[in-house]
Amino acid sequence: MPQHTFTVNGRSVSVEAPDDLPLLWVLRDLLGITGPKYGCGIDVCKACTSHLDGEAVNPCVVPVKEVEGREVTTIEGLADGERLHPVQEAWLEQDVAQCGYCQPGQIMAAVALLKRTSEPTDADIDAIANVCRCGTYFRIREAIKSAAARMRV
């Protein structure tokens, strides 16, 4: 079986897995990283959103062979020790989560957006296509705006 070496949340890992195994299953089943959630498996719901070399991706459709030598960040790698990322802090302040299932993916998508723009418009936020079955979109929008303001200071 092929061996794949890459970095996850700042730590180098090597796994034996078929080249075409989706990264989501490598993260969850082989590495025990459960923040990225399985929702659809076809890049629609985006509950698994994580970062690959700093860009938002959906590991449910990324074969593990494509991450060789690259850096993967999941929700578990977002905080700096005990210090939460400003987006995570804003999520708590705005009481975004209801069921919480989609929130790791929502947060990772928001972090990627704020890397691209420090002053996101409503249209920028609406372009985040992550699905929230609980419908907390208004609170998500407010949390992103709050985090953006905090990060600009």
The number of helices is 5
Give start-end ranges of low-pLDDT stretches. none
Strand content of the residues, in percent?
A: 5-15%
Count of individual beta strands: 5
Rounded to the nearest angstrom, the distance between the terminal CA atoms is 49 Å
Q: How do the helices and strands follow one another from N- to C-terminus? A: EEHEEEHHHH
The averaged pLDDT comes out at: 97
Helix content: 25-40%
Radius of gyration (Å): 15 Å
Largest sheet: 5 strands, mixed
Shape verdict = globular
Task: Output the structural class.
Answer: alpha+beta
The order of strands across the largest sheet is 2-1-5-3-4
Topology:
Layout: E1 3-8, E2 11-16, H1 23-30, E3 50-52, E4 55-57, E5 71-73, H2 86-93, H3 103-116, H4 122-126, H5 137-152
Helix pairs in contact: 2-5
Explain what the structure shows:
- With 153 residues, the chain is of the alpha+beta class.
- The protein contains 5 helices and 5 strands; from the N terminus they run ββαβββαααα.
- The longest helix has 16 residues.
Summarize the structure.
With 153 residues, the protein is an alpha+beta fold.
Keywords:
153 residues, alpha+beta, 33% helix, single chain, 5 helices
